[in-house]
Amino acid sequence: MASRIRTSAVAIFCAFIVYSAAWLAVRFVRDPLPAWDSAVQRHPEINTALTSLDSAGIIALLAIVIGGVPILYVVLRNALRDRRWKLLGLLAIPLLALAVLVIYSLLAVGTSTQRNPQGTSAAPFTTLALVLQIGFFLLLLAAIMGSTTAVALAVKRSHFSDRLLRFTLIPAAIVALGIVAGLITTIILSILIITEAPQLQGSPGNLEIVMSFMTVAAVIAITALLRGMRPPRQQTE
């Protein structure tokens, strides 16, 4: 049972990472801001839907923190106590990825926002600026995937008490429900935008892609939660 709960917790964590990427993508619906402000003044329910989406995401994030901090503490404590350097290396990957992103951002902050001709805010970005922006996006994607994989492997290779694992089911359930709530509010937000403010859609298919990622995350989270909460099989003599 302990192994099943641990696997479920890891799966829900990974599902939340996928959901978070889609959640952040939805927030770009506010760009450009003048068009957004004009739309929500006429249709305040659109802003209410986005606020509800943010609320669901924040609640799920807090649940991740509540459930994840004790887990990471145990992983780190046991790795130091048992001198399991590979586990420590896995835990160091997110910090290394963050450092690389910060250094890249500091080095590219000026050049990545240059426009051609310079000084014209409505002009397109320069070729180098676009390359740097794409590079940052790819680096961010690699950092997220690498960090998620590293943390998941560290948790999978560690041992936890049954009491701690059972506790993680509570925040895991909140995360799963938050993901489902976020998916529902995103569907509502998309319907409102399509019917009341189509100018906020951006490129065709953007909202559909986001909802597909959220749907995958919701299915993974709910499936993992149900699997983790399933009682152990009774052995028959």
Can you tell me about this structure?
Helices cover 79% and strands 0% of the residues. By secondary structure, the chain is mainly α. The longest helix is centred in the N-terminal third of the chain and has 39 residues, at 44-82. The two termini are 19 Å apart. The protein has seven helices and no strands. It has one domain (2-229). α3 (44-82) packs across α4 (85-108).
Unreliable stretches: none
Instruction: Work out the count of structural domains.
Output: 1
Average pLDDT rating: 85
Count of individual helical segments: 7
* Largest sheet entry: none
Structural class: mainly alpha
**Roughly how much helix do the residues carry, as a percent range?**
over 70%
Strand residue content? under 5%
The beta-strand count equals 0
Task: Using the CA coordinates, give the radius of gyration.
Answer: 21 Å
Order of helices and strands: HHHHHHH
Shape summary:
flat
